[in-house]
Amino acid sequence: MYVPAAFAGTDAQAHEMIDAYPFATVIAKGAGGMVAAHLPLLREGDTLLGHLAGPNPLADLLFDAAKTGTEVLAIFHAPHFYVSPTWYQAKSGTVPTWNYGAVHVYGVPRATNDKAKLRDLVSRLAAQYETGEWRFENQPEIFIDKMLGGIAGFEIPMTRVETKLKLSQNRARSDRDGVLAAINGENAEFMRRYGLPEKQQ
Q1: Structural domains in the chain?
Q2: 147 touches 140 (CB < 8 A)
Q3: What is the pLDDT of residue 199?
Q4: Per the confidence metrics, is the pTM higher than 0.85?
């Protein structure tokens, strides 16, 4: 990912964005080319945890990558939005752009079909994201066993992380204020948190 110095984020910011926006695109390369899947991932320290359907072509590629020591890529997308030149104080010599946050995580995966490991993984994922009364451990054992038999689990150690926060940091404060005045909701909150130097907030 191309990350100019003005838009470079820290590892701490990468962790925050992964935790806040955990639905990732996981990509691996096989003999037939690139394969991607869209999956919710769980970060535990510097490791990403996830699972996918066994028949998913990416599952085989994750096992292959684990055997060959080949990196895979997980991409996390934070809020993003169009920026109009009319929002800037300087009205001439400007062009439209797109502001966004993204994290690219590279690592050699560890993949498993072991049901004990899958049970632990699925239980942790469900506990992390379930906000209602459903509990994985309360499901009938025959259902759990069948479900675990149809998925593949994996971990991706975060050996290389690229974090980009393109939020008009290269513009004058007056231009950034103009962008903030034109956006709202999550986009505005995200830009205030990551796009304004602390001394200027």
Answers
A1: 5-193 (2.30.110.10)
A2: no
A3: 40
A4: yes
